[in-house]
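Q: What does the assembled structure look like for these inputs?
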Amino acid sequence: MNDTDISVGSRSEASVSGRVEPSMKKLEEGKPRKPKRSIGTILAPYLFSFPAFAIVFVFVVIAALNTFRLAFTDSTLLIPGKFVGFQNFVEVFHDEYFWTAMLNSTLYVVCVVPFMVILPLILANLVRGNSKIMGFFRTAFYTPVVMSAVVVGMIWTNLLDSKGLINSILETTRIIKHPIPFLTDRWLILFSAMFVTIWLGLGYYMVIYLTALANIDDALYEAASLDGAGPVRQFVSITMPGVRSTMVLIMMLSTIAAFRVFNEIYVLTNGTAGPGGEDITMSMLIQQQGTGIQARTGYASAISLIVLAVVGTMLIVQQIVQKRGED
Amino acid sequence: MGHKKITLGKVVQYVVLVFMFVLLVGPFVWELSLSFKGPGDNVYAVPPYVIPRTPTIENYKQVFRQVPVFHYMINTIIVAIIAIAGNVIFSTMAGYALGRLKWRGRNAMLALFMGTMVIPVEGVMISQFLIIRSIHLQNTLLAVALPGMVGAINILLMTNAFKAIPNELEEAAQVDGANVWQQFFHVCLPQVKGTMTVVGIFAFVGAWNDFLWPLIVISDEKNYTLTLGMNRLKGMFVSDPRLIAAGALVSLIPILIFFACFQKYFFQGLEQGGIKE
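A:
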């Protein structure tokens, strides 16, 4: 179990290392008897995969199909509703709130993704190595990943408060005279939430990069050193090409995650989506429209469908970019 | 590389590492200090100070008095147990069928599972809620766990783990006359225990930290999970950072202990699959 040979990011999230336990080699070679195909043998694969299939089928396939159907109805939580064609979409596209959500979610992607792709790579380079101290840093940087965004949001609410630690430090050092309204200004809320997202995700992507870095041949660095290439030069000519496919993977993962942002903004704004709801995101919009006793499930499904379409487009673009890079 | 000489590069490296360490760990130190500060402490002092002048555990007592923290923890543990059992058992079973057995429909099934992996939860959660509602499970802990009971990524992890088992092992068992079921339990399962652990651990963390889905499906406070409870606590104590700090630490301690115990599996899991959730 310890000799995992690592292959994250080589193609897709499905790529998983092959592990071979050394103890298996001692097994004698033998000609397998033709297995009797009893009824149990024939049914086995279906029985084995049925529970997983049933749950995925109901909660993903049926749910997705139902989202598609509902998007074209005026159904609410209590009334099944009738087919209304594209009316929901017409309404969505005329809804200022929707465009605010789209803007915020898109800004989230644009601002967060570059940090998620670059910072963890730099960190991963800095914490490489087998020494105890590096192991300590790796663990410390990874720890926030296991925490819930709600609790982390509580912590940062305290820190970013107008009288919180950050403002207090800035005032002590006389950098500012008046506290910065991190949690009450429409734009600063968004940027604070982005900061929390990056803070939470750094360690996760760092570990993914570490596995990719481990696959780069050390001889390349040694040869570069002999040729007099400095650390920056080595980073650009050896490290970057070596982790290219991982970078694309992380770009995709962090893009989708950023577009779906919910927890950080919900918690930092106490569920209000900021002053006048200006900090709403796509996921919050779905949650607001689609839940509660007055839920407009049809309308919320139309928005869901748009989110699915945007995420689908991102995945396709990513595939094309990756294909082009391989040629 | 072998010599220990101090270079400019090394200095820069450690400066950055220490800075990141302060940025990532500093907030916890501050919260810890806040949570023990008593009425004699000015929590808004400029300049700020860390060591409480009137240390007290009153904040923690207050949190436990106002919010049934243990009750919410038990709810969360129930959800987590269902999620762990579902993910470990069902994805192991499916992984065996997909990774080791030859049958009609196998590729279609694999394609289905991979396809569902790219569907974001937010896109289908309203429909999921309607399904939960139509089977009258809304507002139950089972409903919180149900849609996440089998993660497609876990099925793929298990499938690949089963695929990696060398054929000779099974062939040897067949020579001994073992049937499919015996091969599963006695030959294959012991080989994938590590991956099963990884799946279980990530299922636990996912269940422990989930917020949006419980928020949608649970309305009754007595069925709140810990994240919902903490969100409510944050709303209640919005004016007292000491209590928010105490609440945050109380809900962090179990997951941090869990992380400390299973650390190596977290890193191993990321190496294998590269994905959480």
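Residues 241-273 of chain B form the longest helix (33 residues).
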